[in-house]
Predict the 3D structure of the following.
Amino acid sequence: MKKKNIATVCITCILVAAITALCLFLPKAEYSHSERRLLAKFPELSVESISSGRFMQSFEDYASDNFPLRDEFRSLKAFISLRLFNQSDNNGVYEHQGQLTEALYPLNVKSVERATGIFEKIYEKFLKPANARVYMCIVPDKGYYISDGAGVPSLDYSELYSVVKNSTGFAQFIDISDTLNADSYYKTDTHWRQEALLPAAERIATAMGNSFNSEFNENTLNIPFKGVYAGRYALPVKDESIIYLTNEVTDSCKVFDFENQKDIAVYDFEKAGGKDPYELFLSGSISLLTVTNPNAKTDKKLVIFRDSFASSIAPLLLEEYSQVTLADIRYAHYSTLCRMIELENSDVLFLYSTSVLNNSETLKQ
């Protein structure tokens, strides 16, 4: 028995030593494509970092991120949790009838009021003096359509809409919730699919007094897509296709990226081949860009204060406007952006997803 215990201890020590050696000496990836995040780097080794305890804390993160066969172990853990123990989610991601989603719960009323408070400041300081016509629109998250009966904790959407409407009396509210459904979103991602947005785009355009042309050509990006939920779910999921819509208007428009001081395209195929193919739409997260339509039916201008959802619906709203500006106050303060935007007699649309409204600390105040 004693020899057996010694052998067990020796084997355990060898395994620990082997795993440690693999963690230290195997080539290290800097980025996890499945989780869409940077991996922890080996911490700085110094007397100060050791004495403060910072080294060991950082080393734990490094070892966890660089564990051999990490993705395989993540999948095994997900399989055991979801399939054997019938856990309802893995890493906060739920699956229902092929759709992956996360729970936005509970409703953070203070966060929503913080967001609408920022919108009101923008209105009072910049939009009201410019005689802008102001509109407010909420982009429902996928859970709005699949939470009932799916075991996904759900925030109180009625209260959310009520808080936003009551806090943005300066804006005309545009409700697009009935123009969408669960299939309007990518199965593995938080974002909506552009080809499913024509009814929502028409609702917005009509509310702002514009006609709407629904004639677009469907094009399929030749890059397979797995959204942000796929990596967190950790079990195998099917690739999806990204479809983008074009017509003579989108083909003729010119786009300027103020953040990087360069011309870009309505559809950025270089970005589409990067870490997140959804960045095909107007190059993804950019603090300020302007789309110029040389063949516009009017000389009207549209300004959209937005998050990432606007990147894919904005190209559908171009026809009536000579210029469409997208401003993202998650990356630059609204005072800075508003001083760079032509607001006089413009249409202004606040277009924000429930996830940003419920976590408005991302907006610069």
Q: What stands out?
A: Residues 2-25 form the longest helix (24 residues). The chain is about 35% helix and 15% strand.
